[in-house]
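Hello forum,

I keep getting stuck at the same step: I have a sequence, I want structure tokens, and every attempt I make locally crashes halfway through. Rather than fight my setup again tonight, could one of you with a working pipeline run this one for me? It's a single chain of 217 residues.
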Amino acid sequence: MILCDIGNTTFHFKISNSSLKLGVEENLDKLPFFVQKIYFISVNTKATQKLLDYYPNAINIKNMIEFQTSYIGMGIDRQVICSAIENGILIDSGSAITVDIVKQYKHKGGFILPGMDAYKEMYPNISKKLRFKFKTDINLDKIPLNTNDAINYAILASIILPILNVQKKYNLPLYFTGGNSKQILKYFNKVELEYDSDLIFHSMKKIIKENKKIKGK
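Reply #2:
Ran it on my machine without issues. Output:
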């Protein structure tokens, strides 16, 4: 079984224990010919068609997902990740940072923050004088006394404090995934947490397995 998560900028393939990423603008001729079935999810219509042009038998698992939420417009990637957890707050840090609350397998709501790379681009776009070096060793209990630390403080506080607030409100464990999550884990050392870089693929496998069981395959 080969899994593919199609995002806004990349095709992310999971092949056994290996990962392969290609930009959505790259030529898929770079990929090997896969004999196994490809199962995928996608938030990118153009890239989806590109994959299907190259692998016509690839299977979109969107209709296999049974996920309870009143949230309107929730991306399939968030649904897949959330369906893996019975109770918890899920933080996916990629091009955007999504935060979702799940209780008894039911989605209670969530919010979206800019990704860290977006923050890094934001300040220099305001002014050349706001160019800075990103770092994650900022003490959030101490007000900064220089511009570089002031910007980093604002970035990290705007990400970390809302997550801590919902964790305190719902008293649920935190589940982190996504390429940039590791950079902020130390700020949550006083609460129960788990990091899984492949959470979306683990959840996809679970969804596919349960669907096959229902259909008796």
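The mean pLDDT is 93. If your local run keeps crashing, start a new thread with the error log.
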